[in-house]
Specification:
Order of helices and strands: EE
Helix content: under 10%
Radius of gyration: 15 Å
Strand content: 35-45%
Bound molecules: zinc ion
Shape: elongated
Number of helices: 0
Distance between the termini: 19 Å
Largest sheet: 2 strands, antiparallel
Length: 48
Amino acid sequence: MKKCLICESPIEPFMSFGKMPIANGFLSLDQFANECFFELKVAFCSNL
Ligand SMILES: [Zn+2]
């Protein structure tokens, strides 16, 4: 995602919280090896 969800202006990430698993993804033991992670970054829209 590189655009503001409201005005679709370009946004710039300024902080990363690293690789995070999907919320509410309650895996069984055999699914651990294929767990999906994504980089959780915070960005803001400067279009006021
Ligand atoms: Zn915006």
